[in-house]
Amino acid sequence: xxxxFLLIVLSISLIVAGLYxxxxxxxxxxxxxxxxxxxxQPVYPARFNQSMVSDLPxxxxxxxxxxxxPGTPLYxxxxxxxxxxxxxxxxxxxxxxxxRAEQILALPTGFIWKMYAEKDLxxxxxxxxxxxxxxxxxxxxxxxxxxxxxxxxHSAFGRYAAEAVFWTPAALLPGPGVQxxxxxxxxxxxxxxxxxxxxxxDVTVAADGRPTKVSFLRWSNANPDKxxxxxxxxxxxxxxxxxxGFRLPTHVEAGNFFDTENYFPFFIVNVxxxxxxxx
Length: 279
Prior knowledge:
Blueprint: H1 2-38, H2 58-67, E1 78-87, E2 96-106, E3 110-119, E4 122-129, E5 132-137, E6 141-147, H3 150-167, E7 178-184, E8 187-194, E9 197-205, E10 211-220, E11 229-243, E12 246-256, E13 264-275
Antiparallel strand pairs: 1-2, 1-13, 2-3, 3-4, 4-5, 5-6, 7-8, 8-9, 9-10, 10-11, 11-12, 12-13
């Protein structure tokens, strides 16, 4: 019996040690991904002038004129600190957790969102990126380890393409891989292409150019069938502040089945700070 007990203790110790080192490996991967994305920041960026957008459809032109002040260095990589609520339930039972997160957003290369959420005695932590989704329960139990598939890459590209509309408008100026077309007098569509991926995002703006709504079809399996397919996704933007010459939203509510009766805003955040780190 003593030998069996020792074997059980040893097995548990090895499992705990393995999970500990796996968690450390995740943290190292997160830091490396952040550094890699920051390294894509332009060191000597051009500065914004309105002639850059003079040929765009009217709502797109208003969008840039509102979000980027003349003379602003056109940084395309942002570091965003945020807090709010993250729902991992359903529309009927959102099961919101209090959440805080830090994100590096670097369209078209990628993004990494590192978060910590808690409710009562339970907490969830981990990261999401263009390459992986890794979440841990109580910091000890891996509850999601996804990535490395075309479905994941396609879905992630939709996320960070749309978030670029929120927080890195300079990355959406017309050029290779970025095209703008008109939808109506208050909505423009940006089409973003990168390494075989393509995403269309509709941006609705107010009369002054302030973006109020972002919507698109996202490749996702967040549906009752758990099958990847295109489905509505989007969110509302508000509470704008100035950050280094950019005028950006600090309140975002977004979720699946946007503009339908099944809309569920599982992502509700307030931004504390946005900066534009250089390598």
